[in-house]
Each structure stands twice: as structure tokens, then as C-alpha cells.
Specification:
Elements lengths: L1 E14 L2 E6 L2 E7 L6 H13 L22 E6 L6 E3 L2 E3 L6 H18 L5 E3 L7 E15 L1 H5 L24
Parallel strand pairs: 3-4, 4-7
Antiparallel strand pairs: 1-2, 1-3, 1-8, 5-6
Helix pairs in contact: 1-2
Length: 177
């Protein structure tokens, strides 16, 4: 699983001329689901995104000190299979992305993991499979890419050890696994 995480002042998703989700300060997370992803990949992405220290601590002035949860900010998740696109000549090929029939329930379960790990009200999402217009005001700009262990194992990325949940980080609740 791949997540492109952007720190935003605001973000929204529009489908067919109607805003379906909007957030204020927080994180816009574009999510690509790989054909080989499992629940452990979703757990990893959920834990990493919610605990990434991308926000300054306003009390101490320390940069890169607080997570979206520590700041009580919002999260907007947007499914984006094109994150697994590769070019074959000049034409994009998406064969490593999870097929839509399997990806839709998998993505829905990811959204639920985020909601159970944080709070229902602060985690929003777009509409899976829809043509969406995503608007954002990037803050920084700050943009990070996080790949789950299955992606790392295939030597496409490296984000550290997925087996550890360091002190102070939110673990994904057992009922979502």
C-alpha cells in the first residue's frame, strides 16, 4: 500500500459538482492499494499516517513535533489507484494496483481502521471509483510518501521497521485487524 500524505490548511473532494467531503487543517492522504496488500499493510499505513510528526508544537515552537491526532486535526482519505501506475512506453499501466472489485471493500476497511484508531468525525473520505476533483491548500508544502511493508519487501521503498509500535504511537485496535 502506498500513501502520499500532504499537510494541509484545508482540502475537499468534489464529485459531479457537489462537495462530498471537506476538512480544515490536517492531512490529505492519497491511498494506492497494491494487488498483494493485506490487512497488515493497512494497519501499518494507518498507524504511520496517524503518528507522523508533521506539525509544529505551538507551545514549544519545536518543528516536526506533533501528529495529526495530537493537534486534533482532520484526515481526508482519497483512493487513488494511479499511485501504482507504471509507464509502458508512454502509456500508463496499472496492473499492479488491486482490481476495483477487491479494492473497494479493502479501501472501505482502511477508512474504518482510521476512524476506529482516531475518531469517526475527524476522518473523512472521497467516493471510491468516482471521478473526483480534489482541492487542497498545502501547508509548507509538506508531502511525504509512505509505503507499507509488502512494498518495502519488494525493494521499492524503505520506511523503517514495520514490526515495532514505538511508545507514544497509536496502535491499530485489534477489532479492526
Amino acid at each position: 500500500m502506498r500513501a502520499v500524505v500532504q499537510r494541509v490548511l484545508s482540502a475537499s473532494v468534489e464529485v459531479e459538482g457537489r462537495v462530498v467531503s471537506a476538512i480544515g487543517p490536517g492531512l490529505l492522504v492519497l491511498v494506492g492499494v497494491h494487488e498483494a496488500d493485506t490487512d497488515s499493510d493497512a494497519d501499518y499505513i494507518c498507524r504511520k499516517v496517524l503518528n507522523m510528526r508533521l506539525f509544529p508544537n505551538e507551545k514549544t515552537g519545536k518543528a516536526w513535533d506533533q501528529s495529526v491526532m495530537q493537534r486534533n486535526f482532520e484526515v481526508l482519505l482519497v483512493s487513488q489507484f494511479t499511485l501504482y501506475g507504471i509507464l509502458k512506453g508512454n502509456k500508463p499501466d496499472f496492473h499492479v494496483a488491486m482490481p476495483p472489485a477487491k479494492a473497494k471493500p479493502f479501501y472501505t476497511s482502511l477508512v474504518e481502521k482510521f476512524q476506529k484508531s482516531y475518531t469517526n468525525d475527524t476522518v473523512k473520505d472521497g467516493i471510491f471509483g468516482a471521478m473526483m476533483k480534489v482541492s487542497l491548500v498545502n501547508d509548507g508544502p509538506v508531502t511525504m510518501q509512505v509505503d507499507s511493508p509488502s512494498v518495502q519487501d519488494s525493494s521499492r521503498s524503505s520506511n523503517g521497521d514495520a514490526s515495532l509500535v514505538p511508545d507514544g504511537e497509536a496502535a491499530v485496535p485489534n477489532e479492526t485487524r
